[in-house]
Design brief:
The complex is a heterodimer of chains A (244) and B (274). Chain A has nine helices and ten strands. Chain A has 244 residues and is of the alpha/beta class. Chain B has one domain: Orthogonal Bundle (MetI-like fold). Chain B starts with a helix and ends with a helix. Classes of the chains: A alpha/beta (244), B mainly alpha (274).
Chain lengths: 244, 274
């Protein structure tokens, strides 16, 4: 009985929190989208009315496994969507965009970084994504390709998503960081981007899929279609993503 | 009528208790005790424990060293603006941790208020262990100072006066009378500050970053391990629950424990002066 009442109270709380004005605006109003942090700007432009949770793709995957109420998952790497698909927690993912890594430095470039080689100098404060976070894994792959993993000795912080890396650069806490090209664009004049050798680039792919058992499967599919469609592609291209 | 009242209020109490304790309980149910110890022996967990202990102890040392005389000064002197000053000291108490983080960056980063001078001298504080100590001290200090001020304020002024008229210097009076008599309050404040410092997350991750063995404290390790190895995250979480419980119990039990020593002091001091 007590247990029942507690559940009722929680349900009431949940209901009052999820109180949206249904009907008004597009049918994407009610859906919740979990998306990689690097999609923050472009997804909000594609669907301003959807509810978003932007974070590291790995963290979002953990939350989906824990049963978070979510309708769409878009990640910065196929790893977690593929795993979730195999576990039956996600419908079949489709790649909707690709990206590339760049090295960013603060606009005034205090450490005088011009290339990845400069990162090896004593006292350089490098910030990267943590292992397991897509941007962190891509960063390590690129450095591996370049034979430059030694610069990781200068890592001053492992961030849990790409926006954490950007923040450490724009706030002037660190000297350089590896992020996606689109994040460098979004950060504007605060940072300067240094391109990496084409041959060393990692294949950064963004899959998207409806979460299995979504209560708004129709609207969720609508969002996926929107991202894969003309409007989505245009917005993605403008933000600097490459299209598959 | 009275019975309905009792039932309703008892129900509310039960609900509140369940709401506050169930999540903590769930943490311990999630992992077998054996796995918990294995997870705690992992490099990540041990490094985090070491970083938390080291930065916590250093921060706490400075909080006590500077906070105690500062609190004594604020508690015993009367001057204009004293109330405002005490309120300002308490500001970090209610400041959101993220604000503390960005504020510390605004002060110490390369383009920061002090940072410009410090960087010119070759002193870089953000993303170092020093930054962790500063973040922890910043958020924890008010818990101690506030409690210390309250303790010093309730000191019996007659005892201080007696000590002074008997020829003890202000310093000796502080050491031999004020400090021992306030020990209970200072201990409680110290424990609360330690608890808050150990739990520090927001300001640390923004200002000090997260690097295993250097700046990754226990709360940061929980966040980092959540998706890599949840067992480690849960194990560190469980350990922090025990630490918190110890702090809480020591704050609750400290008064009854020190009452014996402090009452004997209170009794002996007046009899000595009469």
């Amino acid at each position: 009985m007590r247990r029942l009442a507690a559940l009722a109270a929680v349900a009431l709380l949940a209901a009052s929190c999820g109180d949206d004005d249904d009907g008004a605006g597009s049918d994407l109003d009610g859906i919740t989208v979990f998306a990689a942090a690097s999609l923050t700007e472009v997804f909000q432009e594609i669907a301003p009315n959807a509810r978003f949770n932007f974070a590291g793709s790995d963290e979002l995957a953990t939350q989906i496994r824990e049963g978070a109420p979510v309708d769409v998952y878009a990640a910065a790497s196929p790893r977690h969507p593929d795993e979730l698909f195999e576990e039956g927690l996600l419908e079949e993912p489709r790649i909707f965009a690709t990206n590339r890594l760049v090295l960013i430095v603060p606009a005034d470039n205090p450490a005088g970084i011009e290339s990845v080689e400069d990162l090896a100098a004593d006292g350089v404060k490098l910030v990267v994504g943590a292992e397991g976070v897509p941007v962190g894994d891509y960063t390590r792959a690129v450095l591996e390709n370049m034979g430059m993993t030694g610069v990781l000795d200068n890592v001053a912080s492992n961030e849990e998503d790409v926006k954490g890396v950007v923040g450490k650069i724009t706030s002037g806490a660190a000297d350089a960081g590896f992020v996606y090209a689109t994040d460098a664009t979004a950060a504007g004049d605060d940072v300067e981007a240094i391109e990496l050798p084409e041959a060393a680039q990692a294949a950064v792919q963004y899959p998207i899929a409806v979460v299995a058992g979504s209560e708004n499967a129709g609207a969720a599919q609508g969002f996926v279609d929107l991202v894969l469609g003309e409007n989505g592609r245009e917005a993605l291209a403008t933000a600097g993503f490459a299209l598959p | 009528m009275r019975r309905a009242f009792d039932v309703a209020f008892a129900f509310a109490a039960g609900l509140a208790l369940a709401f506050l304790l169930l999540p903590v309980l769930a943490l311990f149910v999630r992992i077998a005790p054996g796995d918990l110890f294995d997870a705690l022996w992992s490099d990540v967990a041990l490094d985090a424990l070491w970083v938390s202990l080291k930065t916590g102890l250093i921060a706490h040392f400075f909080v006590l060293l500077v906070g105690t005389p500062a609190a004594y000064f604020l508690a015993t002197r009367r001057f204009r603006g004293r109330g405002v000053l005490i309120t300002l000291v308490e500001l970090p108490l209610v400041l959101p941790p993220a604000v503390a983080g960005i504020a510390l960056l605004a002060l110490f980063s390369r383009r920061g208020l002090l940072g410009q001078e410090l960087y010119a001298l070759g002193i870089q504080i953000p993303l170092t262990q020093v930054a962790v100590v500063i973040a922890v001290a910043f958020v924890a200090a008010p818990f101690y100072v506030r409690q210390a001020i309250a303790s010093f304020e309730t000191l019996d002024q007659a005892l201080i006066d007696a000590s002074r008229t008997l020829g003890a210097s202000p310093a000796r009076t502080f050491w031999r009378i004020a400090l021992p008599l306030s020990a209970t309050g200072l201990g409680a404040g110290s424990a609360l500050a330690w608890a808050r410092g150990t739990g520090e997350f927001g300001a640390t991750i923004m200002f000090a970053g997260s690097l295993q063995g250097l700046t990754q404290t226990m709360p940061l390790a929980i966040y980092a391990q959540l998706d890599l190895d949840p067992d480690i995250a849960i194990a560190i979480g469980a350990l922090l629950v025990l630490v918190s419980l110890t702090v809480l119990l020591s704050v609750k039990l400290l008064p009854s424990w020190t009452r014996f020593t402090s009452t004997s002091l209170i009794r002996s001091a007046p009899s000595g002066s009469s």
